[in-house]
Amino acid sequence: MPLPGMARRFRRCQTAPSHNAEQGSILLRQNMSRKGASGTLPPVPPNGLITGARPRFWLVGILLLAYLLAGTAAFYLAMDDMSGDRSGNLALDALYFCVVTMTTVGYDDIVPSSDVAKLLACVFAFAGVALVGAFLSKAADYLVEKQGARLPRGAP
Fold first, then answer.
1. Based on the number of CB atoms within 10 Å of its own CB, is 98 exposed (0-12), middle (13-18) or buried (19 or more)?
2. What are the two backbone dihedrals, phi and then psi, of residue 111, each rounded to the nearest 5 degrees?
3. CA angle in degrees (0–180, nearest 5) for 124-126-130
4. What structural domains and CATH numbers belong to the chain?
5. pLDDT exceeds cutoff 70 at 10
6. Average of per-residue pLDDT across 115-123
7. pTM above 0.90, yes or no
8. Helix (H, G, I), strand (E, B) or coil at 86
9. DSSP state at residue 1
10. Confidence class of residue 94 from pLDDT cuts 50, 70 and 90?
11. Where would I find the beta strands (DSSP E) of the chain?
12. Contact 104, 47 (CB under 8 A)
């Protein structure tokens, strides 16, 4: 609380943009001209596939699962070009190799031996790391939003 006779001084945050009165009035006039008969702005359409610019958690999860299944099928077909300790089930070995490669663990027990299989593993690893990262990012965003919704709102 300020002392009697002294005015309260506010400082602008360094990260806040400075206000340009002329530019603000231009934007206000543009928004007023866009308003319809109801007096509200029209809804802005999303600019991305299905959900806007940022895909949702479930969409990234479905993409990750589809990528894992496609990789499993590709490495199942290329299992003749792989060397190392393999079990009798080629589909399980292909799925295991995909998960180990996509998460960059690399146990080195199943190794691509031909140039084509090595190139396929490299492409699969790069794209897989990006998808796993996107999936973990969306999972973290979901958990933070869920936790934020549970917190009580402060008084204004």
1. buried
2. -130, 135
3. 110
4. 59-148 (1.10.287.70)
5. no
6. 94
7. no
8. coil
9. -
10. very high
11. 82-84, 110-112
12. no
